[in-house]
Amino acid sequence: MTALAHAQGATVEAEIGRISGTEDGMTVAAKEAKMTDPYQAKQFVAESRVDFLAVTIGNVHGRYHSEPRLDFKRLAKVRQQLDIPLVLHGASGLPALMIQRSIELGVCKFNVNTEVRQKYLQFWREYGKTDSKRDLLDCQKASTGAMQEIIAQKIRLFGSAGKA
């Protein structure tokens, strides 16, 4: 797949390890999850030639049901083995200090889909409690605006503001 993508000028992101949590209707139990092994990651990247690697260091898809605990020592070991950008799936709800530490250790991309979707649903739940007669298109613009607020906050948190 990587060879095909590169031939077309596209990049490939892969995930190694299994992240616990629920995403797109699929659930991986915590006991089934496996954190990224730094040496396995090095071998995988060498063989697959992926451009980005999403790591599993205690992050979860969906919501955190307890205090997040990321294994930063593991992340540092992965960073030592690889020279490609690292990705953290399941970053919704992570405290700012964990995000900052992840950036320091080489994470260049964060997935925060859960928080964006939650904001979207919150908008429509609150709208449903009103007697508004607003047009559907106006509502869609407003719900998009609510999601953009979250995205703008995350862009600032990740240190990406003004860099596009």
What is the overall shape?
A: elongated
CATH class category of the largest domain = Alpha Beta
In CATH terms, what is the architecture of the largest domain?
A: Alpha-Beta Barrel
- Secondary-structure element order, N to C: HEEEHEEHEHEHH
Number of helices, where a helix is a run of at least 4 consecutive DSSP H or I residues? 6
CATH superfamily of the largest domain: Aldolase class I
Q: Could you name the CATH topology of the largest domain?
A: TIM Barrel
* Strand order of the biggest β-sheet: 1-4-6-7
Strand percent estimate: 5-15%
What's the total number of strands? 7
Structural domain count: 2
Structural class designation: alpha/beta
- Mean pLDDT reading: 87
Contiguous uncertain segments of 5+ residues: none
Distance between the termini: 28 Å
The helix content, as a percent range, equals 40-55%
Mind telling me the C-alpha Rg?
18 Å
Largest sheet: 4 strands, parallel
Provide tags for this entry.
164 residues, TIM Barrel, three-stranded mixed β-sheet, 7 strands, elongated
Structure description:
By secondary structure, the chain is of the alpha/beta class. It folds into 2 domains: 2-111, TIM Barrel; 115-164. The protein is built from 6 helices and 7 strands, in the order αβββαββαβαβαα. The chain has a 4-stranded parallel sheet. Strands 3-2-5 form a 3-stranded mixed sheet, with no helix packed on it. β6, α4 and β7 (107-110) form a beta-alpha-beta unit. α5 (113-128) packs antiparallel against α6. The model has no long low-confidence stretch (mean pLDDT 87).
